[in-house]
Amino acid sequence: METIAEFNDNQGLNVKLTKDKIYITAAGNEETFALRGVNGVGLYDDLEKYAKEEEEFKGSGKKTKKIKYGLIAIGVLAILSGLTQGGEEAGSSIAVGGALIGGSFLVKNKAKQPVLDSYFKLMLGGADRQFKFIKSDASSGKIADFINKVEDTLTAYSK
Description:
By secondary structure, the protein is an alpha+beta fold. A four-stranded antiparallel beta sheet has the order 1-2-3-4, with helices on one face. A hairpin with a 2-residue loop joins β3 (about 20-25) and β4 (about 30-35). The chain contains four helices and seven strands; from the N terminus they run βββββααββαα. The mean pLDDT is about 80. The two termini are about 25 Å apart. The chain folds into two domains: about 5-45 and about 115-159, Roll (PH-domain like), CATH 2.30.29; about 50-105.
C-alpha cells in the first residue's frame, strides 16, 4: 500500500491517500473510502456559525465595557461623597470608591474569541462526509496540496 499523499493536523485528523482508497482517522473513528465511490473533494468553512459567534463575542464585549464604566462611575461618586462629608465616614467611602475603581480593571471579557470551523469534505454517491480540522493550525496549508493529489487520482477529474 503505497501512500501518495497524507495530511495531518495537530488536533487528531489524519487523511491518507493511496492509489485506490482514502483512509481517514478523526477524533476516535477510522473510515476508509474507495476512490471509485468518491465524486469529489473540497473544503468547507462554516461561516454562518462563525458570524453568529462573532456577533455574540462583540455583544459580550459591550456588556463588559458597561460594567467597567459603571464601576468606575460609582467609585468616583463614592470618593466625591467622601471628600464632601469629612470625618471618619469620609475615609471609608474613599476606600470603597478606590476599591470599586481598582475592581473595574479586573473585569474581563469571559467569552472566547470565535474560531472558524473548517471541514475536509468528501462528496460521495449518497451523501457528503465532513471531517473537522483547525484551519489556523500551521499544517493546514498542506490540505490544499492533499486535495490536489486526490483530484489527480479521481477518475471524475481525469476526463
